[in-house]
Design a protein that fits this description.
Number of helices: 9
Strand order of the largest sheet: 6-7-8-9-12-13
Shape: elongated
Largest sheet: 6 strands, mixed
Helix content: 25-40%
Order of helices and strands: HHHHEEEHEHHEEEEEEEHEEH
Structural class: alpha+beta
Radius of gyration: 19 Å
Strand content: 15-25%
Distance between the termini: 20 Å
Low-confidence stretches: none
């Protein structure tokens, strides 16, 4: 990348560590080599765009310290029936969130196999033994013996949630082979497939960077524009905003 753009290698190495950022010209040069949208990447590098603050009364986002990821609880029936997305971090923190909300936990939904999204699965499952774990079969071995109890949903399948709602799973390979997104009403929990103005890295054994882009284009970007995106890292956004501002598309 350095030799193709003329940008000093030391500068690129610093940016990869979140130390400083490219100027407009450098961002556009990088975008050309990486086949990104130059104007959108320059806006991102200069922090000229951030999604507006998005909050939903039926979705609660929480930090998963010491993991750097987002976790979510969404619920129905006056907050009684709930689903937890990506149990990670300090288990006591998650259990306090769930018990303080007095939730009846129906599902533990796991978007992919990386530990910053699932390393607290076992203690949460032990505290809520009737909650159904849901995870794609290609990633499920990450949760050890609990894999045998997980519901191996397939792309496009729906799960009953409460008496009148459903949760739909989309298989979105690329970040990992089993990466999945979960749709609840007009919100999608995108894991590390789609972020505000970015996408996840390609760490699959079989799937690739091109698969990530295809997953977003063919599945997530087919959702209604007003769909709220609840990502595994960073702030919420919407499908419409990502079509407009994400430099990968």
């Amino acid at each position: 990348l350095s030799s193709s753009t003329g940008i000093a290698l030391a500068s690129i190495e610093k940016w990869l560590k979140d130390d400083g950022t490219a100027d407009d010209g450098q961002a556009r040069a990088i975008a050309k080599i990486l086949h990104l949208d130059g104007a959108k990447l320059a806006d991102s590098a200069a922090a000229r765009w951030d999604p507006p603050q998005i909050e939903r009364p039926d979705i609660r986002r929480h930090a998963q310290n010491p993991q750097p990821s987002n976790g979510y609880v969404f619920f129905l029936e006056n907050g009684r029936r709930a689903a937890l997305v990506d149990p990670a971090g300090i288990p006591a923190n998650l259990l306090r969130i769930l018990r303080d909300g007095d939730y009846h936990l129906q599902y533990i939904l796991i978007t992919h196999k990386h530990e910053d999204h699932c390393d607290a699965t076992a203690p949460v499952a032990a505290a809520f033994p009737y909650a159904q774990i849901v995870m794609h079969k290609l990633d499920v071995n990450a949760i050890g013996p609990l894999a045998a109890k997980a519901l191996p949903v397939r792309d496009g399948e729906t799960l009953p949630f409460g008496t009148s709602s459903t949760i739909r799973m989309l298989h979105t390979p690329g970040h990992t082979d089993g990466s999945s997104c979960f749709i609840f009403q007009d919100a999608v929990f995108s894991g590390d497939t789609l972020f505000a103005a970015s996408v996840g890295g390609a760490y699959g054994d079989e799937s690739t960077y091109d698969d990530i882009l295809n997953s977003v284009r063919s599945k997530l970007f087919k959702l209604p524009d007003e769909t709220v995106v609840m990502p595994g890292h960073g702030p919420p956004t919407t499908i419409a905003l990502e079509k407009t501002h994400n430099p990968f598309f």
